[in-house]
Amino acid sequence: MYQRTPLLPTSSSSDSVVDVGLKLGRRSENTGKDFDADSKRKVPVSHRDASQLPFTLSLSRLSSRSVLVLIVVAFSVGLWAARLFGGSSPAAHPVNAPSPPILSQVQSSGEDWRKKYEELLNSVKDAKSPADAEANAGGKEKEKGKSNDAVYKDSDSEESKNDAAPSLDDKQVVKEAILNKEKDRQMKELMKQSNDSVAKHKEAEEIPVVGERPGVAPMALLPASSVWCTGDNLNNRVCKFRNICYNEKYQWFIVRNNASVLSNVPTYKQLSKDARFGLVEISSVQDHPYTAWSYSEVSQFAPEFKNRKVRYFKDFTILFKRFHGSNIMHTLHDDIMPLWHHIRRYVGGSMRGFDHFDFNLQQHRIQFTDDYEVAETIRPFQYLSDMNLGFLSELNDDKELITCFRDATAGVKKLTTWYQYGFSGPQGPIQNKFVNGLHVRMVSDYFVSRLGLPVEDLYSESHDIMLRAGRGEKVPIDAKITDNAEKKEYVGPDLILILSRTRNRMISNEWQLAEALEKRFKHRTMFVRNEDHSFEEQIALMRRAKVVIGMHGSILIMAMFCRKGTILIEMYPYAVPSDNYTPYRTMAKLHGMHLVYRAWENKHPENSISHEDWPEALGGIAHLPLEEQKKIKDTPTVPPHQCCVDPYWLFRIYQDTMVDIPEFEGVLVDALNESSTMLENLSKTNILETNSILPPLITGPMFSCVGEGRPKGSLWLRWDEPWNGAKPDHYLVRTRLDKADETVEDPYTYYNTNTTELFVTGFKEGTGVIFSVKSICGDEETAFGDEAICTV
Predict the structure, then answer these.
(1) Same domain for 664 and 544?
(2) C-alpha distances in angstroms, 335 versus 285, 415, 438, 539, 764?
(3) Where does the record place the region Disordered (predicted)?
(4) Residue 642 included in any domain
């Protein structure tokens, strides 16, 4: 009969084995591997807890015949086990199968154990350090498992008494000695690793640089990374990296070890709460999945990343993702302007001979993280750094190569972006955001100066001539340079520019329009086309433009390079409401831009040419059901919609337009009146002077009590104008009597004054009046300054 009884391992059971295949899915404590019923692997009983055994045998309950049968079976099993563990049967140990541990291989005799113990104990007692203990012990390491696997024998036997284990106190001494020795060994190993790491780091620092592209060199370990971030969410976070790497297989990743610094870096759990998973927006476009970016982490000691080919850039690198690499509006609004201010902030510096530059062009490089290749719109980026631009395709050339950037940033501030494109609702200006047009002007002035053009807004007399001609007055044909532009470089007479389109959304009578404008307004009219004029040529022409005219489209962003007072007239095809598509109107009206904006809409359906059979992306609707086509054509205005494939919008925006010339001329005359007024006001003001500076506190030395000529019983105070150039709207003076009634809840009296003095009568002669003054500037105000006293 079989029964489950505890079975403790003894020395006599060292050769016993149990078929663990009977216990399905059990996990061995020795190997840490799972077994299945087909493995039939043998594990020594002495290595396993009794509770793990599938069954045990109780010989006391068996008959003599059964005992005889068991003896025969045991003998057979013994022969089988001997063949299995003795290696006589090749089939018993498949080549790829791990050999089971044998108790005799991990046990030691009592004498060996005691000898080793006494040797260690003596070495510890005589030693002053773990190193001394190791030396005293003859430098021999303790064999693993000998003390732990000592043979336990029956406590009544003499042999058991002779082999008794040492006392707990002695064991503790030995244990501490072994631990200390192990710590010492680990410390030496860490020091060796540290020295190797320093040597490898120095070797990495000396990687030869070929031009601006460093050579490739093997690295035993990738350089460890650190990350410092500012900002508290995906939209405003900017991160600086010490060592960030890229490979086409792994994408962007940092290399972690215990010395890595992660400052203000959100956890993976925190990032997962955002609908768009990402650490930063690597473009200035907000709330779009395309712009969310993050990195992975790898261990510096991961085998996958040891002894790899590495190209190591030591220049300061700006990681950036272009939003729309073939569109000049997106290039300037979404990429160039935010990048320029980012470089100004994080790079800075100056260049000899170019003190007016806001940063050093030779200390940073731009690395694109997008798949766009070289196009005409890449030209503006080349003005932001003297180093070659980095393209993602270059990083993907060698599949095994890892490219690392020693110092880099990811994420940009959205200082100058003023428009959103309708990804989560209808497009329009970014709500609750103030963009300073002077920050846009800083970027445009930079490009103008890089091209050698005068940054000053130089005008000919033609800005008056154009208005007078538009009003029908007789004017001279040849304009002269005004006095304020004399003796300065001049770029030529003012122009009327028509931004011409040649493929779609065309002005069908643009030549007639140009002739009419030139005839009436006495100015040369020129066509500017992306196909005919480079980025630089367009800037030069914009600096001469008095009027810029164009159909709604990306090229209108070039008006950012125009002089102050320039007129921008945006034209819209039939049924496209100008109030719903306002990126260029918004730009023109930014504080500090000082452009005059007008919108002209084609209100005449007969002057519109649609293209129903064109591709869907270019406004074609032939693919739609006839009922839907009719509905689109009968809709008088494009309804509000999200970006970017609304058929109502595409059908209308790609129409060609014949301009009603007299109607358009009336719009231009109205704009010229505003431009004239704007230029007159600008000539009298300093647009850089700010009124938002708060004055300093008005303190004691700034006060004076006027005594001479003051009537009796009157208070006459004066104080100095703010020394910092602030211009308060008015002042608030607070007074109280020197010996006021303390029971009064508010003993103060308040007076407003627009000047820096206050005269008040009605006091008793000889009374002391305590006063203080605060300055008020619009919605802002200072605190009350020092209190002083005057005797009336």
Answers:
(1) yes
(2) 9, 12, 17, 18, 70
(3) 124-172
(4) no
One-letter amino acid of 422: G
The parent domain of residue 81 ranges over 2-106
Q: Which of 69-73, 468-472, 638-642 has the lowest mean pLDDT?
A: 69-73
The answer to whether position 243 is within a domain reads yes
Structure confidence by residue, pLDDT tens digits, 365-392: 999 999 998 888 899 999 999 999 999 9
**Contact in structure between 562 and 595 (CB atoms under 8 Å):** yes
* In contact, 404 and 274? CB cutoff 8 Å: no
Helix axes 661-682, 510-521, angle to 10 degrees: 50
Q: Say if strands 525-528 and 428-429 run parallel, antiparallel, or are unpaired.
A: unpaired
Chain center to CA of 228:
11
Q: What is the 3-state secondary structure (H, E, C) of 200-242?
A: HHHHHHCCCEECCEECEEEECCCCCCEEEEECCCCCCCEEEEE
193 has pLDDT over 80: no
Q: Are 360 and 349 in contact (CB under 8 A)?
A: yes
CATH of the domain at 742: 2.60.40.10
- Spatial CA neighbour of 345 closest among 436, 249, 270, 412: 412
User: What are the phi and psi torsion angles at 349 (to 5°)?
Assistant: 80, -175
pLDDT given for residue 704 in this prediction: 85
Pick from 555, 549, 521: nearest CA to 537: 555
403 and 351 in a single domain? The answer is yes
> Are 667 and 771 in the same domain?
no
Indicate whether 380 and 524 sit together in one domain. Answer: no
CA distance 625 to 630: 9
Burial profile 631-641: b = 16 or more Cβ within 10 angstroms, e = fewer: ebeeeeebeeb
* CA–CA distance, 222 with 311 (Å, rounded to integer): 11
Asked if the model's pLDDT at residue 186 lies above 60, the reply is no
Based on the domain organization, do 593 and 706 belong to the same domain?
no
Task: Report whether 581 contacts 551 (CB < 8 A).
Answer: no
The whole-number average pLDDT for the span 324-328 is: 92
Would residue 150 count as lying in a domain? Answer: no
Of 556, 488, 562, the residue nearest 528 (C-alpha): 556
Segment among 133-137, 150-154, 485-489, 569-573 with least mean pLDDT: 150-154
Q: CATH number of the domain that 464 lies in?
A: 3.40.50.2300
The answer on 458 and 397 residing in a single domain is no
pTM: 0.68
My answer on whether omega of the bond before 644 falls inside 30° of 0, hence cis, is: yes
- The Cα–Cα gap between 365 and 319 comes to 9
The CA distance from 230 to 246, in Å, is 23
pLDDT in the model for residue 29: 36
How many separate domains does the chain show?
4
Please check whether residues 452 and 524 belong to one and the same domain.
Answer: yes
Q: How many CA atoms lie within 13 A of 706 on its CB side?
A: 15
Among the candidates 71, 106, 141, a domain finishes at: 106
- Looking at the fold, whether 441 and 411 belong to one and the same domain comes out as no
Between 180-189, 542-551, 571-580, 655-664, the lowest mean confidence (pLDDT) is in: 180-189
**According to the 3-state scheme, what is the secondary structure of 473-496?**
CCCCCCCCECHHHCCCCCCCCCEE
Please give the Cα distance from 229 to 292 (Å, whole number). Answer: 15
Comparing 415-419, 457-461, 562-566, 583-587, the range with the smallest average pLDDT is: 457-461
Q: Is 382 domain-assigned?
A: yes
Q: Are 740 and 698 in contact (CB under 8 A)?
A: no
